[in-house]
Amino acid sequence: MKSTLIAAAVLAVAAGSGVAHADTTLVVGIAADPTGLDPEAVENNTSGFIMSTVYDSLVRYKPGTTEAAPGIAESWETSADGLTYTFHLRHGAQFSDGTPLDAKAVIWNVDRLLNKASPEYIYNTGPVEGYIDFTYGDVASYRAVDDNTVEFKFKQPSAPFLSSLGMVWNGLVSPAAAAKWGKDYRNHPVGSGPFVLREWRQRDSIILDANPSYWGGKPKVDHLIFKELPDPQAAVLSLKRGEIQILADLGTQAVPAIKADANITLLTQPGLAVSGVALPVDVPPFDDKRVRQALNYAIDKDAINKALFSSLAVPLTSPLPAAQWGFDKSLPGYPYDVAKAQALLKEAGVKPGTQVELLTYNSPRGYNPAGPNLAIAIQGYLKKVGIDASVHQLEVGAYFSSVRSGTYKGLMMEGWTGDNGDPDNFLSELWSAKNIPVVNWSRYKNPDFETLLSQALVVSDQAKRAEIYQKAQKIVMDDAPWIFINSTLQIRAIRKEVKGYELNPTQMFFGMENVSLQ
Description:
This protein is of the alpha+beta class. It has helices at 45-54, 103-114, 132-136, 161-165, 175-181, 232-241, 255-259, 289-297, 301-308, 338-347, 372-384, 396-403, 424-431, 447-457, 462-479, and strands at residues 11-13, 20-22, 25-30, 59-61, 68-70, 73-78, 84-89, 139-146, 149-154, 195-201, 205-210, 223-228, 246-247, 264-269, 273-278, 313-315, 354-361, 387-394, 411-417, 482-488, 490-495, 498-499, 516-517.
């Protein structure tokens, strides 16, 4: 197979056998360049795609799910009171630079997040976007019991802890590499995963080689490349030509052409993804709940889903996607009602012609395969109710910098893909006050909502947790810190010669060691 990126076949001598074979290279098309490759300091899907192939965590997800399974920890026990977790590590596991991945290395990684006295404390390495509080916020102590056993003790039970450990953002970092690179480590990642970074060509491609010492066995392809293709049409053309074999950030408008190509398969999966518009609740007139509700009534979600998403999305009637356990199907959401929107705006004293900026990313995202076209559609609907929104597009990295500054005063296109299959991963991350401004771009605060989130975390019974989260969903929908748009199916396109590739609800590229080309 030809590839314009690197030679498709490179003769190499198999180690110890003297048998020549053709190197295999798998190329994945992505819409943007990563912003860094340090799992504890970088939080966006594009970066996560690459990191999910470089790093391992204590637990991993069973294929196609967010259910915890053995990773670097072969097994674990939880105490009867839910306060103590004991993990037994794989003997002989190591990072790709040869550093042992033992209990000492695991504790070093946790120290890096929690111990401010540590010289490698994460806040010394650059802007932090990670899940420190989300995973470890209630940890009272942690220690290495012996070379291959680590123990965590909690102040109170933490229901999502196990599933959270499997997130790409909890990938284990080589202590030696982090010490070597310091603040520049995010550009020189070293993990224990199936692939190893060879070269990062900024704004072009990430080139990875198979990790020959991977504990799960050498991957089935020799090289894995993530190629930046920001133009959706060019990306689809590259897939059709065989220049890439998997297209990650697939625009929904390309779905008919993908389905018509006999050499390509369209993969879909019920999505843990939500898409909407973050409304700055601390900026007039959006500090008035009536205004925020009005903008929700102003958008025809059904028409958008049909026109822009090839009917592969459904309107959000809850802050959670329907595929997420705990989803409250009784909530009506905000039906399209122009008259109600106009009445609420008039009641709130908002005059027709009010101007605002709507900031958007310039390429498709996993939670919004329509990319900036969604912002343009929303702009048109807002115009009908007297809100004059000017759409401003930014490259993904610049866009994240703007919205995470905590000072942006306009409307912001926002979306989210679940990381661990737990409702808290949506409700807390997107709307808890503790996550202002990294993820809670609306800067939304509600004490009653926070109380419910705290209550749900210490309950082990899933049905009882769901009841609490249903109350939380009602609060957020009524307060309307977002314009709630839709939840999409996860969609990706692969060429027929790709074998063994499986979608994960988190959209990450877990299990790439099992993928081959035939």
